[in-house]
Amino acid sequence: MIHYEEAGRGPVVVFLHGGALDLREWDEQMVLAGRFRVIRVDARGHGRSETPMTPFRQCDDVAELLGRLGVERAALVGLSMGAGAATDTALEYPHLVSHLIVCGAGTNEPTFTDPWMLEIQRQMAEAQARLDAPAWIELSLKQGVIGPYRERADRSVEDRCREMITDTVNNHVKPGMVAPHHVIGSWERLGEISVPALGVIGSLDAPDHHAMVDRFVRDVPGARKAEIGGAAHVVNMDRPAEFNELLTQYL
Length: 251
Hints:
Layout (H helix, E strand, L loop, with lengths): L3 E4 L4 E5 L20 E5 L16 H11 L5 E6 L1 H12 L4 E7 L11 H15 L3 H14 L8 H18 L24 E6 L4 H13 L4 E5 L6 H4 L1 H11 L1
Parallel strand pairs: 2-3, 2-4, 4-5, 5-6, 6-7
Antiparallel strand pairs: 1-3
Helix pairs in contact: 1-2, 3-4, 4-5
């Protein structure tokens, strides 16, 4: 079962959240329901969707949901993991996608080389090995919300993300849980994308995320890039007004 929420009427915009978060990440984007039919989705293993115990692909879930809702084409907006899911959907189900907007990533085959990011990931792996969920959650916040260039994010953004990540850990991390499969070779297939595409990055996001958005914009024909100042990885939460204006103008 895939949980979703929708509001509004008009052209369809689907929001796909980042890893360990859920559809509450897009709370500030629901105001766009005044101009669009807004659909926000809990990926499997997140929020109120089911915990995956068998192999699956997020792009297949997106396509199935759109079919159930009678949506012929939609603009897909994804952040981080959700960006990869959006790109995978555009590659595997191009007839369903009208626009592709990725934030802080390009595909679900990320490349990490920056020392700051590698150290955070090392610490997260150690916390996971010793089953230290509180430490893993705080490190996840540091990596995906605060970023390398500031000590803290906005307190309300941190608190909301901590709540979402904690809920994901408490409700979905269990023996036998299966991670999603992704489209293999997705970076090499970006040239197949023919819909309008936009790569969005926060100025305070980590270098690896900047590099991935740059690669996406370079390799997708006709893609554009937009940078939002004062935002890190969860760019839509850090600077919601600027993000919403950018998205409205682009669509």
